[in-house]
Amino acid sequence: MTTKFLPPVAPPGAPPSYAQGMSAGSVAVVVAEEIGIPSWDLYELSIPLTVFGKPQPDLSDHWYDLRLCATGEQGAGGAEFGLALRTPYGLEGLAGADTVIVTSVPDACVEKGEPLAPDLTEALRAAHAAGARMVSLCTGAFALAEAGILDGRRATAHWMHTAQLAARYPKVTVDDSVLYVDDGSVLTSAGLTAGLDLCLHLVRRDLGAHVANQLARRMVVPAHRPGGQAQFIDLSVPETDDAGLGPVLEWARAHLDRPLTVDDLARRAAMSPRTFYRRLHAATGTTPLRWLLNQRLARAQSLLESTDLPVERVGELSGLGTANNLRHHFLKQVGVAPGEYRRSFFAQASAPPATESCPAATESAPAPAKA
Predict the structure, then answer these.
(1) What domains can you pick out in the chain, each with its CATH number?
(2) Do residues 140 and 103 lie in contact, with contact meaning Cβ atoms separated by under 8 Å?
């Protein structure tokens, strides 16, 4: 049975520009380097430019309005093994932005404790006070901490710098074991690819799981890694060839409506339950039961976004069981009830019609679930 799609509805808290059909909000990306950008910081800078800067009209009519904002004299000088950058905005571009992202700070501020530019700190405080969503990637957390925005909050950064962050800013609860931390209006991530995970998480929050997953597919990256996943996997765990996991995990995604167990998956993978547990944890950083729950939640998300199926049927097709069980897990992991989530996001015209016999095998979950 093919189901009908729901009409467009703006997500809660969306900026006025969304309702006017202009964008999903303005994003100001801060370049905190005074004399140029070192080559090793280019990756983090390119992440938000790629995710938020390129419109995706076939995925959403409402994309982001991106501003690249530099401190100091824009384009003055250059860094060794790096480049100078001319931007259309200075720090005044932070004013009125819906989201402000600091991708990194100069190495001297991290390694030697040199102060950040006072005008940058003040601009960040002003943006936060005005209600902007504040985001840091990698060492950008030092800028938010210096501005006092992380005081009393849990935050993270690249694990190589978290000890320095914690020592310098004792009012911040630093967690070096996660990819990113979503504290509502303030979000921080570890370095490199964890920054991409966080940016896709923001798209998921703003525009829904379908848009975020399709964007991730275009970028040839995993659709979603939960923020609570470890930054790195302990190499004391024996390395194994996980080629045998792929088929069984794909099979599980295609049969989420069944009452699957770890023993079922292990048997299908021709492994003992203990071996299957160890190999899945080594490959994904999570447990089999948590992985299953994540996939079920993602399937429910996709159905709620793109169909008008009753909540009871969504629970059945996702394998979460009764409507009450679906509501329990949604409230715990997503933070809202299924009905509210459905009203918050709209089906994209480019999405294929959802049918009861076609599970969303490529969707992934919004947060780590407890087994």
Answers:
(1) 16-218 (3.40.50.880), 242-284+286-344 (1.10.10.60)
(2) yes
